[in-house]
Each structure stands twice: as C-alpha cells, then as structure tokens.
Design brief:
66% helix; Homeodomain-like_sf
C-alpha cells in the first residue's frame, strides 16, 4: 500500500492483463455502452470491479470519439480537395469551350493570343510552322 506525504492511502492506477484488455476491447466492439447487469457480469468474469469496468469504458469511448473525429476531419479535407479539383477541372472545361468556339471576327488579338498560348505549347504564332513538303512549294 502506497501512502502520500500526509500518510493517506495513495491511489494507484490498476494494470490490466492482456486477457482482460482483450475481453474489454472485444465487448467494446459489440457495444459502446454497458448496462448495470452487463457491467457486473463482465467485471465478475474478468476479476475486476464494476467501477474499473465503468471507467475503462468511459476512457475507451473518449479515445474512440477522438479517433472518429480525426478520421472525419481527414475525410472532410479529402472531400474538400476533391471538390476543389473538380471545380477547377470544370472551370478549365469552360475555358476550353471558349477555345473550341469559332472566333469572333471582332475579338482583340490579345484574347486570341491567350487562347493559343494556353492550348498550344510555345504557341506564339497564329499558324503552325510549315511542314517540309509545304516549305519547298
């Protein structure tokens, strides 16, 4: 028995065996909350007090909620980034629609140059370079 500096009994943390933890975890997978009679049966079968089982379940639920919240946050970030990616792709498709439309004869040269630069690598000129057969003609 441990005593604190005032001579009172010091609370010690119980250590559970691997078998006890396994049984507690297995039960927790099936149900997150135990009613009184279930708690009493489990405590008796594991050689623990009802209070120990109750506190273990409280602590385990807290751990489970934190993990669940972290997983939900990760999933939300992933969904948000996918939504953003799809939004960007949609915007690019709209810009591509502009490229595929016939040019307005009144369009300014700057708009035409931007469309060409966007869709043709190194596309500064309006016409493609002549092929060898065309150059000799």
């Amino acid at each position: 028995i441990l005593l604190d500096k005032d001579g009172k009994r010091k609370h010690t943390r119980p250590t559970f065996s691997g078998q006890q933890i396994f049984a507690l975890e297995k039960t927790f997978e099936q149900t997150k909350y135990l009613a009184g009679p279930e708690r009493a049966r489990l405590a008796y079968s594991l050689g623990m007090t009802e209070s120990q089982v109750k506190v273990w379940f409280q602590n385990r639920r807290t751990k489970w909620r934190k993990k669940h919240a972290a997983e939900m946050a990760t999933a939300k970030k992933k969904q948000d980034s996918e939504t953003e990616r799809l939004k960007d792709a949609s915007e690019n498709e709209e810009e591509d629609d502009d490229y595929n439309k016939p040019l307005d004869p009144n369009s300014d040269d700057e708009k035409i140059a931007q469309l060409l630069k966007k869709h043709k690598p190194g596309g500064g000129g309006l016409l493609p370079p002549p092929s060898e057969g065309e150059a000799s003609a």
